[in-house]
Design brief:
The structure holds two protein chains of two kinds. Helix content of chain A is 72%, strand content 0%. By secondary structure, chain A is an all-alpha fold. Chain A has a domain of 36 residues. The N terminus of chain B is likely disordered. The chains are: A mainly alpha, B mainly alpha.
């Protein structure tokens, strides 16, 4: 029954849409879509319990990345550990959101057509930028070289802060 | 087969005569296809922004600690929580609309709108805290200097030499101690020392660092990041002396660009939700809710990466 309007319209299109072939292809696609649980609304995409479980997982993961900031985080002296950990946590969260909230888990195969090229482009773009990290400070504008901070400036400021805390200013702070 | 035709998203009103039929290349509705295509461009857009941030962040000789720029990690984490909640509510709105529970769908949609607005409110609060400390992007610079050098010293001198500031300082000096709080008394003495140091003929490099520390101390991480009280700029807000934050200018540029673009996306999402609230949120409009939801989840997704990169790295 639903194939007839398709056939009619295909005939009406004539040469533009190459009738028989496209209609068949569309029907075949339709079958494929019907076989998949994805569909468009007939079947539930995920139960309430599932969504709440994902929500709890997201909250837990946020707490975990926040944990790196707390004093209980064991690798405070090696920030790289925390960075890697947080990126892993973020990727997990992103995956949960995409799979469950954006329903990608239940979608038909078109999801790969759209997401994989975009993801590859995004990763490629980020990778292309990596050499800049190494080269960034080798060549800077004169104005920037003049004004940009260096580790020596930070230690100078730290010494000043230390002196202020131990020196006369600090004593004054406590006099009043 | 009926179900499959419906799932193709065709208008099945082809019974009265030949009707031009759109043949989709992919088995999904046009709106959803366009939304996904749009999102894939958005992925690349934010990948470029985040990638540039990472380059600037890790390529910089010095990058400020979150507390140096008055970032509050708990506020950031709370904002993440708010956005995750709003993602859940928009999913629930979609489910309710599909089940034809229209009023329930509307309630969830309204909750999403409120949560999104709440996120923006917190963001605005954070922005205003930065602005009030003189932290904002400006060319060539606002109040932020990267190092306590001669340029910084002369900027402090220039500010202290402004007629309006001279008047305010005279006024402050003339006030009896009983009228002032202990902070102000203390601050007044420190301001006098800073004035002497800034104007002194035999100024040392260390003096400039001391001035910078007096104007706005960089909180120590070991102190839990709350030791920044007592800077002269804080005690006397009218002073607005130049401050030193190593790496602060680049930080301000990237922070406001990234969070600003994200906030724009949030605002667009709120507008979409506002429009959706005008409709009956039944199965007929479930597609619209789904597309708006896809966009909103993406906004959530971006924040999931922004939060650790900006607040915790």
């Amino acid at each position: 029954m639903p194939t007839s309007p398709l056939d009619d319209s295909a005939a009406a299109h004539g040469p533009i849409t190459a009738p028989g072939h496209l209609a068949e292809a569309a029907v075949a696609d339709g079958d494929a879509a019907a076989v998949q649980p994805a569909g468009h609304g007939e079947e539930s995409h995920g139960s309430l319990a599932q969504y709440l479980a994902v929500f709890a997982a997201l909250c837990f993961l946020t707490t975990m990345s926040f944990f790196t900031y707390s004093s209980y985080w064991p690798w405070r002296d090696e920030p790289q550990v925390g960075w890697a950990f947080m990126m892993a946590v973020s990727c997990t969260k992103a995956l949960l959101v995409v799979l469950f909230f954006m329903h990608v888990l239940w979608e038909a195969n078109w999801k790969y057509v759209l997401t994989i090229p975009a993801a590859m482009m995004a990763i490629f773009l980020a990778v292309m930028l990596i050499p800049d990290i190494g080269l960034r400070n080798r060549m800077v504008a004169q104005e920037r070289a003049l004004h940009m901070a260096r580790p020596a400036d930070v230690s100078l400021l730290e010494r000043a802060a230390k002196a202020a805390n131990e020196g006369p200013h600090h004593a004054d702070d406590h006099d009043h | 087969m009926d179900a499959s035709a419906a799932s193709l998203g065709h208008d099945s009103h082809g019974h009265h005569g030949p009707v031009l039929q759109y043949q989709p290349g992919l088995p999904l509705t046009r709106g959803k296809l366009i939304m996904w295509l749009f999102l894939s461009t958005e992925i690349m857009f934010f990948a470029a922004l985040l990638g540039s941030y990472v380059v600037l962040r890790f390529g910089a000789a010095v990058w400020p600690k979150p507390h140096h720029v008055h970032l509050s990690e708990p506020i950031g984490a709370f904002n993440t929580f708010v956005l995750i909640c709003s993602s859940v509510t928009v999913v629930l709105a979609l489910e309710a609309a599909r089940a034809n529970k229209r009023s329930l769908a509307k309630i969830w949609m309204l909750t999403t709108l409120v949560l999104g607005a709440f996120f923006l409110g917190i963001k605005a609060y954070e922005y205003s805290a930065k602005f009030s400390h003189g932290i904002y992007p400006a060319a060539p610079r606002g109040l932020i200097y990267e190092r306590p050098d001669l340029y910084y010293g002369s900027a402090v001198r220039a500010r202290l030499g402004e007629p309006a500031i001279i008047d305010r300082m005279k006024e402050l000096d003339a006030r009896p101690e009983t009228e002032l709080t202990s902070d102000e008394v203390n601050g007044r003495r420190r301001l006098q020392q800073v004035r002497e140091m800034a104007m002194s003929a035999d100024q040392q490099a260390f003096d400039l660092a001391v001035i910078a520390d007096q104007v706005m101390p960089l909180p120590d991480d070991a102190a839990g990041g709350h030791g920044h009280g007592g800077g002269l700029n804080e005690t006397f807000p009218w002073l607005q002396l130049p401050i030193v934050i190593p790496g602060g200018n680049m930080w301000a540029s990237t922070y406001f660009l990234l969070t600003g673009f994200h906030a724009i996306h949030v605002i667009v999402g709120l507008i979409v939700f506002g429009i959706l609230l005008l409709y009956e949120l039944g199965p007929k409009h479930a597609g619209m809710i789904e597309n708006a939801g896809l966009y909103w989840h993406f906004v959530d997704l971006v924040w999931i990466f922004l939060f650790p990169l900006l607040y915790l790295f």
